[in-house]
Amino acid sequence: MKKVYTIGRYFRKKFGEDVYKVPLSIAGFTCPNIDGTVAKGGCTFCLNESFSPNLAEKPSKKFYLKPDSSENPLLNKQLEQVRWQYGVTAARLRGKYGVEKFLAYFQSFTNTYAPLATLEALYEEALRQPGCVGLSIGTRSDSVDDAILDYLAELSKEYEVWVEYGIQSVYDETLQKINRGHDSENVREWIEKTKAKGLKVCGHVIFGLPDETEEMMLKTVERSIEWGIDSIKIHPLYVVKNTALAVDYLKGKFTPIDEATYIRLVVEAIKMLPPTLSVQRLTAGINDETLLAPEWCCCKHTQMKHLREALKKAGYIY
């Protein structure tokens, strides 16, 4: 039996102990695909609250950050959110698992889509928190630049620093259907630039995007590996209320991926991964009233049970 090289195994090998992520959701952050810079309305599947466990409040309707914002009246509030969210979650993880080391995970919205001075203040505040050994920054490939990467590269000399890019699909026709706002070449370019700076990259891919075949989904994994990602997150596409995808689903224009197909594809994806490429996530879902479909995405525990069973049959221990 082969052990899947999980991010937990990576951290234990590097730090000699467990390292857990602490998700952070910062008010005032948005996305160039929401504010109209590259598109409007966001990705068709995105209701950011459903993907953000620490998003305790909706973003400010009065002020949204952009990279060229001349001021940030929310900075003090944002710094307090970093301290409070980190403190509460880290304390819970310490109590439950006995862990002492953490990565501050800037999760919600696009966490490089702000003036560099704001990013520096927030990242460095997170790094000052007890037990914080690094950062993981969720963003889009069209929302980074060389100055941000250079700054992160400097931080990486002392801390563990990851940049998490939403790849989703390597097919431009799919990216257009989901209103992504950029093409696959943009993703390739910035993953390779990020790697050239010496930074670690986690790529997010989605199985079950509109009109994609199984071959297309696995090709996205293959191409992502070729681009040099260090780690991968795989998600099923599920439908939540108040999204453009929900409208298509309710009109019968979109059929979600079924669990058996998803599991089969995940097993095939695992077989493709180089031994040094870690796995951060194999599935996702949400267990509340916002989930419309598929039903199997409502319980992550059950999903993981089925995935582990399928992987075991294929000769893998997750």
In words, what does this structure look like?
By secondary structure, the chain is of the alpha/beta class. It has a single domain (2-317), classed as Aldolase class I (TIM Barrel), CATH 3.20.20. Helices cover 38% and strands 18% of the residues. The chain is built from 10 helices and 11 strands. The strands form 3 sheets. The protein has a 7-stranded parallel beta sheet with strand order 2-3-4-5-6-7-9, with helices on both faces. The protein has a two-stranded parallel ribbon with strand order 1-11. Helix 2 runs parallel beside helix 3 (116-127) and helix 7 runs parallel beside helix 9. The radius of gyration is 19 Å and the shape is globular.
